[in-house]
Amino acid sequence: MRIGVYCNPQKDPDGRVEAIIYETAAKNGVSAEKYDGARQYDFVVTVGGDGTILRVVKDCVKSDTPILGVNRGTLGFLTEIEPDEADDAFKKLLAREYMLERRALIDVTVADKHYYALNDAVIRRSGGGRMITMSVRVNDAVIDKFTCDGYIASTPTGSTAYSLSAGGSVIGPNTPVIALTPINPHTLHTRPIVVGSFENIAMTYTGESGAALDIDGVCVEELPNGATVGVTGWDRSALFVRFNKRSFYSRLLTKLNARSE
Q1: Of residues 12, 42, 50, 88, which has the active-site annotation?
Q2: Region of residue 139 (left: phi > 0; alpha: psi -120 to 50; beta: else)
């Protein structure tokens, strides 16, 4: 078995957890090397939080490589183990005592470019500008026009991220939907909307205050006036290693309680 190890140096600045992963892998006869997105692995092990996973997930999706997240973040909705559980985790991987959980991604298009998001696509104001004006269509039907700080199209996985902070609903990970959540809309009637995962969503920015498109928290495009960002489901999904049958809702309760403490 060969694994690729991706470590976030900001979450493991002294390299202690990364060293544990390599030492434990060697102890269990597992070949481990620094992650290279161009290579094929049996598993990819990430050291960090959910943001760390977002940095490798798109390559892993393309090769159908499962991800095992070692938590060094704050909440870690997607991570599975703590550093001191690494030895037990490798033994279970070798014995095939694990499950694979699938998480859907969305396909985001703008100006003939495709991006793929595990969490969300966000149109937001940029450069400290004023609120932006938006229109949103689903299958060519206008569902709203408004002024706001931004707009989020999220997967069920992303429903516990930015969308949740903006007032969106938490969505079970196996629910085939896309959540549409406005950010600070300057109106009382605009509300979050949930649509089918393979409906065609078009988010159009109008105005001259400046806007940008973020994919999983990374700015990928500055948007000119009239730019339309298309969103629909992608027929590929990320695979995450799970060792127990603890439900998403039990995990959610634990994580949200930890956030409030």
Answers
A1: 50
A2: left
50 noted as active-site residue: yes
9-39 pLDDT, tens digit per residue, is 999 999 999 999 999 999 999 999 999 999 9
Rounded Cα–Cα distance for residues 101 and 99 (Å): 7
- Type of residue at 141: A
Residue for token pair 């809309």: 185
Q: Report strand pairing: 218-223 vs 67-71.
A: unpaired
CA atoms within 13 A on the CB side of 35: 24
Q: What is the maximal distance between C-alpha atoms in the chain?
A: 60
**Angstrom distance (rounded) from CA 178 to CA 150:** 16
Q: Residue 151, Cα to own-chain centre: how many angstroms?
A: 16
Half-sphere exposure of 194 (CA within 13 A, CB side): 14
Partner residues linked to 237 by β-bridges = 104
What's the pLDDT tens digit per position in 40-92?
Answer: 999 999 999 999 999 999 999 999 999 999 999 776 789 999 999 999 999 99
Assign residue 228 a region: left if phi > 0, alpha if psi is -120 to 50, beta otherwise?
A: beta
The helix-helix angle for 16-27 and 86-94 (nearest 10°) equals 40
**Is the CA virtual torsion 17, 21, 22, 27 positive or negative?**
positive
Would you state the structure tokens that stand for residue 242, as one six-digit string?
């799970």
